[in-house]
Fold these 2 entries.
Entry 1:
Amino acid sequence: MSQSAALPGPRIALPLLPGLLLCGAVAGAAALLALAQQALFGRAWLDALVLAILLGTGLRSLRPLPAATAPGIAFSARTLLEIAVMLLGASLSLTTLMAAGPWLPLGIAVVVGLSILCGYAIGRGLGLPRRMAVLVACGNSICGNSAIAAVAPVIGAQARDVTAAIAFTAVLGVGLVLALPLAAPLLGLNDLQYGTLAGLTVYAVPQVLAATAPVSALAVQMGTLVKLVRVLMLGPVVLGFSLLAGTRAGQRPGLARLVPWFILGFLGLALLRSLGLLPPVLLGPIATVTGALTLLAMAALGLGVDVRVVARAGLRVSLTVVLSLLLLGLAALGLIAVLPPG
């Protein structure tokens, strides 16, 4: 994918309109289905991002899409996704990392790094293409959908790779949220340790809350802290892949060309948030816009995927996700064992 993107002018935007409207319709349907789950069951078993991918893929599989929708779909899957990743930086504060003390962030960084390396090795060993293996490894190791979405533009991943990686990590993420509270008594962990385990293994912050709330408020607080520190690893990891991609290509461009614009924006917003220069009144609207753009991008990714291609990669991807997550869990338990007791 291109490392630079610009918002379209009025004349250029007209060809994008059919695809944007289609992505908006799919995203809206996904949001409504997620709300319906929440109303009926008390929680959304499949969040709107996953539903947008599933609905988009299903629509694409049922009938060919009009050619007029292609530009808008491509714009949503690339440029809108990059903008969403950039805005994600506003949700991160380095003060959280400093408040946790030196050993916990260092341990999390080591676990994330080892998990990415092992996950990539497992994926390649099972025959996954290089880019797919990177996406699965990063999704498992950091924050699921957001990590996959952030890494994809940097490594030039195709829509079908992104969709497959998100779909399988999302399904397993739901299972993990349900299984962890049941496994808590068997693991012999105190509430702080259990919160650490949940924060290190569960993909999204809302899922961490769901996995820790049945245990205790202390587990919720620790799980959320660990998860936020883990999410802070996203910037350095994406920057590292960007530098690696430039080195492999034999390029020696300046920083502005080597590092994607949206990653620079991500780091800039995180720095502004950490320095207290980002007005708190803006945080809510930024989070809303980020969520909406990400949902549109996921719908676009689904609309750009041939389900038969994903099905062919299914077994290998699912095995990679499961084995990588098991290794991540073992690494998390190892970190808990060496950290000072809570």
Note: The CA atoms of residues 172 and 322 lie 8 Å apart.
Entry 2:
Amino acid sequence: MSVRELVVLGTASQVPTRHRNHNGYLLRWDGEGILFDPGEGTQRQMLRAGVAAHDLNRICVTHFHGDHSLGLAGVIQRINLDRVPHQVTAHYPRSGQRFFDRLRYATAYRETVALTEAPVDRDGTLAVPPAYTLEARRLSHPVESYGYRLVEPDGRRMLPERLAAHGIAGPDVGRLQREGVLRGVSLDEVSETRRGQRFAFVMDTRLCDGVHALAEGCDLLVIESTFLDEDAGLAAEYGHLTAGQAARAAQDAGVRHLVLTHFSQRYPGPEEFERQARAAGFEGELTVAHDLLRVPVPKRR
């Protein structure tokens, strides 16, 4: 059975707290696992969440600030220690290659896995495996930063009543799907487009074109909301979003489920983030993330 869910490993911004680990997010997408922004402590959080090194197929780093990347050293070494049998690919800003190299070889260990480096230096498509297309978009932060977007190809949904009207049943349904036409009946006559699901991961950034492009039409959007709206000046200065800004961007983009995360230690609890997101007009499903939370990707429309 396929599983599509987000496993939240950490939700703190620059400084971890007693209740929030540094960043870390695993997207389970059918048989693949994509780890986003492994901050310090990610390896232990994976253990607590029941995530194994064998679950990882890709690692996507938005930028090389420590709360988004210091966990790379431990995660990469664990992948090698556990002798993960499949290819693991790492995406990260090409401008941070020296930081990636330092983290990858931070200490001595035996390399047993061929980790594939696939750095990002422009907007566009990064990979096209069978189940999705992985894209990147430049964000606005003091250091080069990219957000990531996963798009499932559109499919077809068969319409039982139309199949019955044409007397098509059993193995003939599969034959029609494969060949496109059966006894003069086309696939379009008995089916409709099934829109592929969309997921986006947007971390440290001001509002910019990249935010809107990544969020557009997403079923699940994970986005930073480091500050509350009353601190919008600080957010702009340091290259971050407020809860209201993130929520308005999500509403404008037609996001179905919004996950707010990456919270500053200056705020005691999550309640005000939810209130401000709703006050900004977001009408979809809303989650203020906490560590070790599991969020399912919404079912198809």
Note: The chain has ten helices and 18 strands.
